[in-house]
Amino acid sequence: MTDHATDRATDTFVAHRNLLFTVAYEMLGSAADAEDVLQETWLRWVKVDLGQVSDQRAYLVRITTRQALNRLRTLKRRREAYVGQWLPEPLLTTPDVAEDVELAESVSLALMLVLETLSPTERAVFVLREVFDVAYDEIAAAVDKSPAAVRQIAHRARRHVDARRPRQAVSPSEARAAVESFQRALETRNPQGLLDVLAPDVVLVSDGGGLKRAALHPIIGADKLVRFYLGGSSKVEATITCEPTVVNGNPALVVRLDGELDGVMAMRVEDGRITGVYYVRNPEKLTRVESETPLTLR
Fold first, then answer.
1. Which of 90, 93, 78, 74 lies closest to 36, judged by CA?
2. pTM score, two decimals?
3. Mind listing the pLDDT tens digit for each residue in 172-181?
């Protein structure tokens, strides 16, 4: 490839990089693996004769999807041996992502957990069709299926996700208000304050990856969640501070103990109360929280 052709390939890749990253991340739930997929995509992209490509965006999405599918099948086996509950790697995102309601929901930790229950091909089809509105024939080329088969897979995946999808979330401002109330109760270790903002059937999923203390199974119910939290915090003499942020397009908290990063806590808010708490404590999933600037995702 000539220098001019390489420059053209680079410009096109950079123009679509956020989109390609988001596709890979939604399929994998790991920013580190998504970055590896983008590297593999780039290595293949620079070998392509651009003169033979009529739709460069679609071609790049196709390469990214295929590489992500290959990696997803490997990750599925790795996650079967994961210690405790697995949560996606949290991403700091710009506030404007929260204003794109469909995108914010699609990358929320709550929905990405649902996507984990799909097969690799179902997940790829769902992400491409439901999140990015890719045409069926383009998806078919990406997953090596016929358009008719892709339509069936999309219908099956949509039905599966809809049956498990959290109820419609509130507006970003309502979510922020609930998270702020939760933050005050956490920092003051106020059990009644927690109960006031938690839905009775709230679910806590915590991910320590075997490296930090976390519940091995989801904790269901406000009373149980508060007891779990107070029981753990009573053993910690450090000062708890929480920094409001936006994670995966939704209001969240960066939790610190005596100034040291302890984890990222994302929440699902419905009807003004918190129905889901997703606490990532695995330090291997927190490196980007301290080092990366927020992403726009598209």
1. 74
2. 0.91
3. 889 999 999 9
